[in-house]
Amino acid sequence: MKLFLLLAFCALTAQAQPLKPWGGGATPALELAALDGSTQRLEDFRGRVVLVNFWATWCAPCREEMPSIEELRRSLDARRFAVVAVNVGEGPRAAAGFAEKMGLGGFNVLLDRDTKTSRAWGARVLPATFIVDPDGKVRYSYYGAIDWSRPDVRAAIAKLIVE
Fold first, then answer.
1. Do 95 and 57 form a contact (C-beta atoms < 8 A)?
2. What is the C-alpha to C-alpha distance for residues 145 and 95, in angstroms, rounded to an integer?
3. CB atoms inside a 10 Å sphere around CB 72
4. How many CA atoms lie within 13 A of 149 on its CB side?
5. Matching CATH number, 19-162, of 2.40.160.20, 3.50.50.60, 3.40.30.10, 2.40.320.10
6. How much is the pTM?
7. What is the pLDDT of residues 77-99, one digit of tens each?
8. What secondary structure letter does DSSP report for 80?
9. 99-153 pLDDT, tens digit each
């Protein structure tokens, strides 16, 4: 019982943490295949704030936070905000099935099958999320699940959209 309470406390504490300002240097490259076979690059989203989320279908916290990412995406102007969901280590069938099941049609789902991109971004735990400003610079990071519809999180992202 004590272990359960400790784990529950840790989970609640993690949920309450703010976005962490990025201190990892230059923005890593991101160029991956999309579900439709095309290649997408981070540069393709220049001019928009981009939420780059590294996830996998087997990751319970990833499944837990996806609805709040979708809620955030729907609440913001699509011309100024985009979601790039990078599936780590899985194939297109698994990623597409997950995206369809979760109702993530508005996400740009990319495939990091060899995990080189996730390693370059420092996504050693899943989910790992990075907020990129309209100029292509990583401004925030978050490791673990978070409620992306939280007012403080939404405000931080909205501030980048209007800057």
1. yes
2. 18
3. 20
4. 12
5. 3.40.30.10
6. 0.88
7. 888 999 999 999 999 999 999 99
8. T
9. 999 888 888 999 999 999 999 999 999 999 999 999 999 999 999 999 999 999 9
